[in-house]
Amino acid sequence: MQLKTILNRVQKHSSFVYSGVRLLECDPVRLEVDIRSRVGSRPRCSGCGTQGPVYDTLSPRRFQFIPLWGILVFFVYAMRRVDCCRCGVTVEQVPWAEGKSPITTSYAWFLSGWAKRMSWKEVAESFRTSWDSVYRAVRLAVAWGLGHRDLGGIEAIGVDEVLWHRGHKYLTVVYQIDGHCRRLLWVGKERTTETLERFFRGFGLCRTLRLVYICSDMWKPYLNVIAHWAPRAVHVLDRYHIVAKLNKAIDEVRADEAKRMAEDGYQPILKNSRWSLLKNPENLTDVQSEKLADLLQYNLKTIRAYLLKEEFQLLWNYVSPAWAGKFLDRWCTKVMRSRIEPMKKMARTIRRHRELILNWFEAEGMISAGIVEGLNNKLKVTFRRAYGYKYFKTTETALYHTLGKLPEPKFTHRFF
Ligand SMILES: [Zn+2]
Predict the structure, then answer these.
(1) Å from CA of 43 to ligand 1 middle
(2) Distance from the CA of 82 to the center of ligand 1, in angstroms?
(3) CA of 110 to the centre of ligand 1 (A)
(4) Whole-prediction pTM
């Protein structure tokens, strides 16, 4: 069986033929497959797609194809130029590659498929190609996917900020969090009013008006933009963010108290207590549980703050927004009398956002706790896999690629 037969089986082009195959004994070994246009066929203009007469023929170009048995494979073809009646003289359009790309479209989809499973560097090393080729392949897949994705029927979105660039900069991410589809919809630089407005402008007024639930944290610019753009949607404050803020307050109380006790010469009983206080009781290790039981005997500010947090968690058991509201008010009053400043600050924040917190109960069943957190964790895995994502464009491409659930074209032959 000839290689040409296999190529015609996996990738056939109607106006072009595989004319010859050469094995080149260089390092690494490579196969070159000559392609020529079918006799009498007219080239297609890359500008408008119509066929026209040949103007001239350029020198042969190489397009990398999917490697075979550890041998690199290249298509070699001399591009023709078209004398197009609309666009003037342009280079022809070929079915196996796009624009000036040195890799074939099949190879690009092949690489981008592997890039979902491994880091770009690993893909490049595995298939003996460059990091740039992998990036180019992923970019092509993402561009195609974004152009073909369906944004209809989106009812619930989650907006969040994530740290990027070793924690120096922020990105704003918008997820679809509907029960049937959870994916990254959009990513933007920084976390300003302007950032989120850019998302809504791109998303469009019609789709925004159809949103039923929007979930976010308490970041002020987000709250303002959401209130302005989607006043009819139920805006829910994410439970995960509220608990995270409470934990931060407890941490502050603990650090402060531990420092004061050390200064006053007391035994360092708060030492190594951080995780005993911050983790959910059911997730504690034996040692942490013991530490917590030990601490609970003392009348410390830290312990009182801890007990207030545990009490606050009862909020999520409520079903009726009205009763949840009563509980929340009682809790805030109690905290305001506690004389623990970081907790009082938290109570004031909660009072300020009372309505949005209670929307959690309005959206009962629609938004489960931790969806946004779960998606954020996947996002962090993507960050960790690529030390290289120095530029926003690269990061954006990688995130859409791994979290966007982007569609892919239907192929007649799958290479892996
Ligand atoms: Zn044209």
Answers:
(1) 11
(2) 8
(3) 30
(4) 0.80
CA 86 to centroid of ligand 1, rounded, Å: 5
- Select from 85, 3, 93 the least CA-distant residue to 41: 93
- Centre of ligand 1 to C-alpha 83, Å, is 8
CA of 14 to the centre of ligand 1 (A): 20
Place of tokens 């569609």: 407
- Residue 165: the pLDDT is 75
3-state secondary structure 274-299: HHHHHCCHHHCCHHHHHHHHHHCCCC
Radius of gyration of the chain from its Cα atoms, rounded to whole angstroms: 29
Output the average pLDDT for the chain: 88
List the helix and strand counts (H, then E) for the chain.
16, 12
Q: Are the C-beta atoms of residues 411 and 109 closer than 8 Å to each other?
A: yes
Of the candidates 296, 301, 290, 215, the one whose C-alpha atom is nearest the C-alpha of residue 256 is 301
The answer on pLDDT for 416 being more than 70 is no
